């Protein structure tokens, strides 16, 4: 959990595509990390998530996405937390443990901060998720 977000020059690479980062080979005593899921098959799928909010102009709380799969499993991921604004697009890389091919539903969840306006409502105007063969 200490390697993300990556430094400006990028994350240390290992495995597939590692040869695309020749500068990494010149450094010594590097730490390499491999993100895995907690359970078998230990694979994770990197997804880039963009969320544009609708509703109140500004509020406090956190935005989560909950992934559901065909076997009834679910996993919740935090995308943003703290001061939230309708004018911002929240972007996050998620290492999702649920295979995109088996995903049946992705739920947008807003958890309101205790001191937030009681009447405040917040929704997702758009949620874009990008994934590919190499994450």
From TrEMBL:
Listed transmembrane segments: none
Pfam families referenced in this protein's UniProt entry, alphabetically: Lipase (PF00151)
InterPro entries: AB_hydrolase_fold, Lipase, PLAT/LH2_dom_sf
Lipase domain location: 1-42
A single MF term (Gene Ontology): lipase activity
Coiled-coil positions: none
Protein name as catalogued: LIPR2 protein
Naturally occurring in which organism (per UniProt): Quiscalus mexicanus
Lineage: Eukaryota, Metazoa, Chordata, Craniata, Vertebrata
Gene this protein is translated from: Pnliprp2
